[in-house]
Amino acid sequence: MPHLVILYTPNLDRPATDGGADMGALCRRLCDAMLAVRDEADKQVFPTGGTRVLAYPAAHSAVADGGAAGLAAGLGDDYAFVYMNVRMAQGRSALTHQRVGDALQAVVKAHFATQLATRPIGITVQVDEGHEVFDGKTSSLHPLFNRS
Question: What is the pTM of this model?
Fold first, then answer.
């Protein structure tokens, strides 16, 4: 049930030459990073068939002061924000949580390096562990990865 959901300001959908970010490429990189995380027993933390990364631009947004501080600092008023939340099933160790967070944070820092250096942007990576009160699954995807 590892789902990473990304909410972001729609100004990041512009071309990279205009301050945008390739969100599709970010999704792939984050998914690959999740699949590479290993626990203390060197087991893959997230099942291949169940790992999903979904990104959604916000239909409406307001960030910080609307741009006044960015203009005063010479960075412009085109603020951007990215919120990432990965939700994991219960039972993993604190070390595993840290490894997941560190892996995602490394991808984010590399992907947004240009934006972090040239524009006001805020990025949050959050790892949550959930207690499911109902967990129904229907999948023809998982069998692809469970073959011997």
Answer: 0.86
